[in-house]
Amino acid sequence: MSTITMTEHEREQFLADVHVGVIAAEQDDRAPLAVPIWYDYSPGGDVVVWTNRGTVKERLIRANGRFSLCAQQEAPPYRYVSVEGAATFQDAVNPDDVLPLVRRYLPETEARAFISESFNDKAVLIRMRPERWYTVDYGKLES
């Protein structure tokens, strides 16, 4: 019997590939907040996202102490990896701290220009070491 669940290596590699993630954080008396976000990840490491102090997502994650992130392949064969875990915050952030994350999505010159225009003194990096993994690779059905 074939399984569509990714192996540890497959899921870590997929999450390390460039995808726009969807970050989700619990809200009281409402559905979870779920918004797209750029992220950084290296196999065996932390998921890292950049936002600003005071945003809805930052306040919710800080209050709850955890978040989840889902990355997906939007063309066949469909795949996704969803991770969840406890959050830690790096409040003292400088532009060089966010450069590796932005470079995943933009070429060097554009990444530096984006940071120059977007970075401010409210910048915060939020890290999460994945504790739970949920994965699907529908390409395995073809095997």
Automatic annotation (TrEMBL):
Gene Ontology CC terms, in alphabetical order: cytosol
Any Pfam family the entry gives: PNPOx_N
Organism from which the protein derives: Rhodococcus spongiicola
Name the record gives this protein: Pyridoxamine 5'-phosphate oxidase
Domain Pyridoxamine 5'-phosphate oxidase N-terminal: 9-136
Record carries keyword Kinase: no
SUPFAM superfamilies tied to this protein: FMN-binding split barrel
Highest taxon listed in the record's lineage: Bacteria
GO molecular function: coenzyme F420 binding; oxidoreductase activity, acting on the CH-CH group of donors
Oxidoreductase keyword on record: yes
Keywords: Oxidoreductase
